[in-house]
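Reproducibility note. Readers wishing to regenerate the assembly model reported in the main text can use the exact inputs given here. Chain order matters: entities are listed in the order in which they were concatenated for prediction.
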Amino acid sequence: MPPLEVVLQQALNGLMLGVMYALIAVGFTLFFGVLDVIHFSHGDIFMLGAFAGLTLTALWAALGLTAPALALALTFLGACVITGLIGVAAERLCVKPLARASPLMTLLATLSLGLVIRESVLVFYPRGADPKPFPTPLPAGGFDLGGVFVRWDSLAILGIGFAAMIAVDRLITRTRMGAAIRAVAQDPEAAQMMGVDLDRTVDATFFIGSALAAVAGILSGLYYGEIQFIMGISGGVIGFSAAAIGGLGNVYGAIVGGLLFGVLQTTAAAFIPRGSEFRDVVAFAVVMLFLVFKPTGILGERSVERV
Amino acid sequence: MLTVWAVELGVFALVVAAILAERPVPLGLTIGAGVAAWAAVRFVPGLRGGLAAAFHGHRRAAWLGGAVVAVALPFALRASPYWTFVATMALLYVTIGQGLNFQIGTAGMINLAGAAFAGLGGYTVGLLTVRLGAPPLLALLAGPLVAVAVGAVLFVPILKTRGHYLALVTIAFGFIFTILMNNLEFTGGPQGIKDIPTLRPFGFAFSTPIRLFGVGLPYHANFYWAALALAGLATLAAWRLHESWLGLALNTLRDDEIAARCSGVHVARQKLVAFSIGNLIIGVGGAFYAVMVGFVSPPDFDFGYSLIMLSVIILGGVDSIPGIVLGACLLIPLPERFRFLHEYRLLLYGVMIVLVLLFRPRGLWPAPTARRGALPRRGALPPFRASPRAAGAGEAGARTVRSPARDAGGHVSLLEIRDLTVRFGGLTAVDGVTLEVGEGEAVGLIGPNGSGKTTLFNAVTGLYAWSGDVRFAGASLAGLEPHAICRRGIARTFQASRLCLDLSVFDNVLIGMRATGGASAWTALLRRRRFLADVHAALDEARRLLVLFNPALPARGFERAAALPQIDRRRVEICRALAARPRLLLLDEPSAGMSPEETAELMRDLQVVREADPRLAVVIIEHDMFVIESVSQRVTAFNYGRKIAEGPFKTVAATPEVREAYLGREAGV
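Running the prediction on these inputs yields the following structure tokens for the assembly.
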């Protein structure tokens, strides 16, 4: 049993990872809610968000924008808009036309679209194959809290992540568009009869979800200090796992699932010999076991099939 | 016959030329010839039909010619070991594709870890031969079995989850496999296992170049022929299994699991069988890959390859056995041909799959509906087993568990329900209902919507959990699953039609017979004559049933069920229930959604059925009082989950509670 400080340190690290996973998972769960599909290229949208962030950071520097806080804010804003629009384009192109086909079809179409996005970055982004260092404007250093070292940039990442989640919660529970999204998730036909514009709502959902993925992508860049074109594969699978643990279609479930997955990973890394190599094995195995006992997730509704 | 061979030779020449042509002029000529051939088939009227007829008429010659051409390919490619290797890879993908398609296409079980199962086969070969010194041939046999064994362990989460959650389980498994192979020491980590010894059957090493008919061939040709044999076997096995009763059961549970369960299909067992057969075939492909290339490493079996395997299926056509062959033979060699596009290869690949899915979602060679339409009738063999369906209608024989209780009036009680209660959370949908149905009796159930009639059916057929006592022919039904209840002799229809619309009419009726028998998968694989006799006996039985309802139906037997009008769909559904040779038939609102004329027709049909088998008991839920009056001898009325009246129609209809339940309380009363 490692000492308490180590456990707490790992929990903190897990929370950091978890915030990013949660942001991706919320996208998965939102899309599932409105269209009943798994948008598998979402992982690569997350990667695009990171690359959009990197490009914008470089752009601000080239334009001589020196205030780091302003540059960072503009990076987030710009990346969210760009990635959100790309997400909407992906939905229009490849998700919605197939939403009524079998799950296998949409799964494969979005997986392939992910491949296209990934390869496009590899081929068309300058030196796309190399890992890209991600400049961080966040202050270095930190403080000691009862044996646990808390870094300033970690706090910033946690703060931004939770702020994004709260913003989404507000958006969904307090606005007209949010009400439309919830209505469509419950019953698209009834929602349409009540005057909800289905196409616009779906577009908005994909914009929001993809923008959140962009936030996660930039946070990931800030956290690891580098980004890579293949980061979307594991990001997508983990985000999907998190959404499934939480129960597909439930936003809070996705957040809980994401945090859980992050903590699970870091705990596995701390407690198991050579844990850092096998942490994903443990995490995925737990996900599978979990689905045996709770096949529709923590907050997923238990569906009774009507006969 | 000559036409067939000429066409096959032409295609062969075109393929070889397309592979080998390098300089602009021959390449241009090849492309021109290909386009011309395509345009001719597409636009010359009658050519396509003529060719199809030629191939249909000379089936054996076509197969023979195709086999000769496939065997001859290494001779044509002798100058290029590389292309022989690529052709071999395509054949391995045919094998793997057939296995994966059996899971995904036939049984509807999404498996996104195809590469991991192939890897299990490959790594087993590597470990056994290199680490333990086992002979490669033995390892080649062991590899697929390991894939099956691991698949069986994984089956627990697979059975519990469905749809997207199932996809996640298999994705997670694939990732676990890759990470483990990368990090475990005994599998060689990222380097994998090198120097896997080659096959040496009868002392002949596969790695030696050979000379045949005076032509020197690279050693790759050995592997090509072995892979060709494997692919041929896998395709034949997949074909026969798809035609078999197992294939039909899998198709049905893929399209409608509840209908399958209520037709006597043991869903969990059939899924496990399908998953294991699939993994066996995939494992064979992976194991063979290991001995062919001589090493295995984690990147050979990662998620990307699972996607390529899946793409083979999608491109060729889901659940289409010839489609898989076509898909693999296009998808694997094509990118190699365009190596000057190497950088963009995967990109184009992804774009192509998206385009296929958007514009040709059923694949290049869509699965045919009439899987049994082409089965030859060989001789006049009698049914290979005196199946219950061949015997008289009422003689359920072996299924009579215990002699039913006979009361004083000679009335034989078949279904006895006592104090049946069904609860959903706080809602009591059926509340202490007692009901008895005798042999040959027709009982009507009436009551307003939500009064618990359908819930009663669902409880009796094992779909919902219940408390109380339900006995059928003297034996309790407690704890039985729907398929077991169907096999005891209770068949049903559904309020909202649960036909498998993409399957043929005959297939929909045949699945009902699965409850009482049908040749095993082994018979379908190995004993062709017996299997054909069995299928034709079943088809004749299906025709006999369909004719009872509508003389025109058997002629449309090989069409998709979706092509039928509503009333015929309902008839087919009733035929499916009758095909199970039930002693009790539960009809859930058969007239729902029909015009008065159609309803009247259907009532006549039901009378015919009752006359054909006077011992068959029928319970019918209806809102149409004329139907109830004309069909049933006795009526039970429900409201709020309770029985409120019972007796002859006239008496029940006159009961104040019943009138109130249907029409509401009269004003002023």
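We highlight two features of this model. Chain A has a mean pLDDT of 87. The first helix of chain A runs from residue 4 to 35.
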